[in-house]
Write a structure and sequence with these properties.
The complex is a heterodimer of chains A (165) and B (199).
Chain A (H helix, E strand, L loop, with lengths): L1 H33 L6 E2 L17 E9 L5 E6 L5 E6 L5 E6 L7 E7 L11 E4 L4 E9 L6 H9 L2 E4 L1
Parallel strand pairs in A: 6-7
Antiparallel strand pairs in A: 1-2, 2-8, 3-6, 3-9, 4-5, 4-8
Chain B lengths: L1 H29 L9 E2 L5 E2 L10 H10 L9 E6 L13 E6 L4 E10 L14 E3 L11 E6 L7 E3 L8 E10 L1 H6 L7 E6 L1
Parallel strand pairs in B: 7-8
Antiparallel strand pairs in B: 1-2, 2-3, 3-9, 4-7, 4-10, 5-6, 5-9
The chains are: A alpha+beta (165), B alpha+beta (199).
């Protein structure tokens, strides 16, 4: 009885913790590349990369940010990419709790603010998205159908802002 | 003394059960052959799940996806189909050549990517190609297309598999922003046909 209960409790804990560990690992890589939390980190290479995450999509050029809203809301802004652009947010258990794309926005300029519940009042400008957890990951995907897209994508990346709101 | 022995035995049981549970659960979550166990098989033998990235996923499903392919989009934005078998139900192996044929998919764009099933990463190759996408793939007048999967170089639309041996691989079809009509038919939309050409 004691053995079975322990087994089930540990199993549940391992399963629950696994996506959080994966998220923490990816966040630490993004933080290292970006120079800190709440900063943009860009992939600027076309095609498959050995350093990419498991089963990454080589046709999607990623900009990412490991965010932490415990000290206040975080803004991500810039311009969409016409071939396909999406912004997705992942909470600490790895669930994709928010996603939008360029065809759903009214203009090519975007401005989103990630905030924890209760912090909405302190933000001016931008569409506010409430994060279920203090930490998480923001991803922007741009469709690169060919390598010739890269100079314009890098320009698009350079026009982004990630940081305190 | 008797109480002490009982306590020691209980602690030992808890410790061993905990270690066993941790080891067995971790092994089950990371087993590359079990990643897609909870996916459903479509009529054309592609595997599909609408729970990738979604809140409806169970803890086990979420953990497996996080380990094997983190940060997937929810099915609201993109849908994923996986082929680990050809159209006859035989495992995809790098020792065989395959002809993957498809037609237009009514969506914003799609891409077909090859991954080594063991490493769960891209297959290194001389032309640095692991995928074809809907904009780059040459199409016939009807929108039909062909991708040639093989170890050795092909003249047209080559998608390289592992250079040596008979190693398992998978094809991952990502469909971004499917039209309402396509979405209504998912998962039984017309998916590419994976045919073993030679072995």
């Amino acid at each position: 009885m004691l053995s079975a209960a322990t087994f089930l409790a540990v199993r549940s804990s391992v399963v629950d913790q696994a996506p959080k560990n994966v998220m923490a690992n990816i966040e630490s890589r993004i933080v290292k590349g970006a120079g800190g939390w709440n900063a943009c980190y860009h992939n600027r290479v076309y095609g498959p990369r050995t350093a990419a995450a498991r089963r990454a999509n080589p046709d999607s050029i990623i900009s990412s940010m490991a965010y932490d809203v415990s000290n206040g809301p975080v803004r991500v802004s810039g311009f969409t990419w016409p071939k396909y652009w999406s912004l997705s947010l992942y909470q600490q258990n790895s669930s994709n709790y928010f996603v939008t794309n360029d065809s759903q926005l009214e203009q090519s300029e975007f401005n989103f603010v990630i905030a924890k519940e209760g912090d909405k009042q302190s933000v001016s400008g931008g569409t506010i998205v409430t994060s279920p957890t203090d930490k998480g990951i923001m991803l922007i995907r741009r469709f690169a159908s060919r390598e010739a897209d890269m100079p314009a994508i890098i320009e698009n990346q350079n026009a982004m802002y990630c940081g305190p709101a | 003394m008797r109480y002490l022995a009982a306590i020691l035995m209980s602690v030992t049981i808890i410790g061993l059960s905990g270690l066993a549970a941790k080891h067995m659960t971790t092994a089950a979550l990371t087993d590359e052959n079990a990643i897609y166990n909870s996916f459903e098989k479509t009529e054309s033998l592609w595997l599909y799940s609408d729970k990738i990235g979604g809140a409806a996923a169970t803890n086990v499903e979420r953990a497996k996806v996080a380990i094997a392919g983190p940060l997937g989009l929810s099915s609201k934005e993109a849908v994923y189909f996986i082929a680990v078998e050809d159209n006859q139900g035989r495992p995809l192996l790098s020792s065989c050549d395959y002809r993957v044929t498809g037609s237009s998919i009514d969506a914003r764009w799609w891409s077909l990517t090859l991954y080594d099933s063991e490493t769960q990463h891209y297959v290194p190759n001389a032309i640095n190609r692991s995928s074809w996408n809907s904009a780059a793939i040459p199409k016939g007048t009807n929108g039909d297309w062909v991708i040639n999967v093989s170890q050795t170089s092909k003249q047209e639309t080559w998608l390289p598999s592992q250079e040596r041996g008979a190693r398992p691989f998978e094809l991952n079809l990502r469909v971004y922003n499917p039209s309402a009509e396509t979405r209504a038919k998912i998962p039984n939309i017309t998916l590419p046909n994976v045919v073993r050409a030679s072995c």
